[in-house]
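Let's study my pick:
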Amino acid sequence: MSGATIKVDPIHPEAAFSRCKAVISSGGVIAYPTDTFYGLGADPKNGSAVKRLFEIKARTPGSPILLLIKDAAAVAEWAADITPLAERLMRRHWPGPLTLVFKAHDSVIRELTGGTDTIGLRVPGSELTRSLLAYLGTALTGTSANVSGGLSAQTAEEAGQTVGDAVDLILDGGMTTGGMPSTVVDVSGGMPRVIRLGAITEQTLQIA
């Protein structure tokens, strides 16, 4: 059955957010707008929901899944260690297109880490996405709302065309900005390592 689509009222988003919360808390999967493209959101503490996410994307096990969190304070729930450098990068670039890869808590579902014992976290630049995360009271998986290797969706309609038959709900928040993906920096070890350059350049990062 195709997932329903619910449009966000920017003045009173609570009704749409409530529908999302009901789906997520019951182990479902939603498509929702982020600061770049539409993403697939599932409860990252629900193993069955995470497994279903991989099935929807036809994604190979062993591929890590990043999480979107509401603010920097939420990092401690997922990361086993937060270095001074990570704190500086969070202060400088969050909210925004920077994904930081931390050493994961032992409690983090293995499928999310891809067996790496690390977890990617980002506070999205979209106020709508942060408001949704705050309303849900949990992080959400942030992988793109498509089948692995396919085009990313900038609208609810595009998300519906690619994963609409597989998700439980599509949250229509209008068109996302698209553009470059987030820059990814591994801060799990002694030395930071740029995994992927994206919207934030190496000069802007100021890792040193």
